[in-house]
Amino acid sequence: MTPAGSVGGDDRLRLFLALQLPLATLDVLERWGVEHLRGGRVVPREHLHVTLAFLGSRPATELDVIIEALREAASCAGRIAFEPVAWRETRSVGMVALRDLTGEAAALAARLHGRLAELRVYRPESRAWLAHVTVLRFRERPRLDPPLPETGTFVPSGAAAYLSRLHPSGARYEVLERVSLTAGG
């Protein structure tokens, strides 16, 4: 993990904030992807997450306030629990949509979006936040209909601020800071 303080102040960072998946869920998604996903590039295990907010290119000088906003929003989160509910494809990605069983993930996302908007580092999307894990990227829509992965109900292992670096082979993600989902943690 790279400490947030190691990023230079004049740099621009491609950032997003996300919920991290527990190891057992990553195991299931990885096996499921190998068995059922064709027609694109399967997202590597270390890149699987539930995005809370994509901030895009931001000055490195904003990183501390962005991480603090994530900490604040996460500190009052109740128990978050997900289960797979549907397969969805957009024009460039395949995803496992998740049911937010307690409503706490949506509440966390709303708090976070509000705080980031107040800080003027994020413009909330016009569409409602959707809990999902992107598992496949493609140029041409494969029109898959895979069975849902059998993860059962799962609880995120934490939240994190990520740096996304674009490469010809696909984006590479680096955790800049991890944040606990437990009050006071």
List the helices and strands and how they pair.
Blueprint: E1 12-20, H1 23-36, E2 41-42, E3 49-59, H2 63-75, E4 82-89, E5 93-100, H3 104-118, E6 132-137, E7 158-165, E8 172-179
Antiparallel strand pairs: 1-3, 1-7, 2-6, 4-5, 5-6, 7-8
Helix pairs in contact: 2-3
Radius of gyration: 16 Å
- The CATH architecture can be given as Alpha-Beta Complex
Give the termini distance in whole angstroms: 19 Å
Q: Roughly what percent helix? A: 10-25%
General description of the model:
The protein has helices spanning about 25-35, 65-75, 105-120, and strands at about 10-20, 40, 50-60, 80-90, 95-100, 130-135, 160-165, 170-180. The chain has a single domain, classed as Cyclic Phosphodiesterase, Chain: A. α2 (about 65-75) runs antiparallel to α3 (about 105-120). The chain is globular, with a radius of gyration of 16 Å. The chain contains three helices and eight strands, in the order βαββαββαβββ. Strands 3-1-7-8 form a four-stranded antiparallel beta sheet, with helices on one face. A four-stranded antiparallel beta sheet has the order 2-6-5-4. The longest helix has 15 residues, at about 105-120. A hairpin with a 6-residue loop joins β7 and β8. Residues about 1-5 have low confidence and may be disordered. It has about 180 residues and is α+β, with helices and mostly antiparallel strands.
In short:
The chain is an alpha+beta fold. It is 23% helix and 32% strand. The protein has one domain: Alpha-Beta Complex (Cyclic Phosphodiesterase, Chain: A).
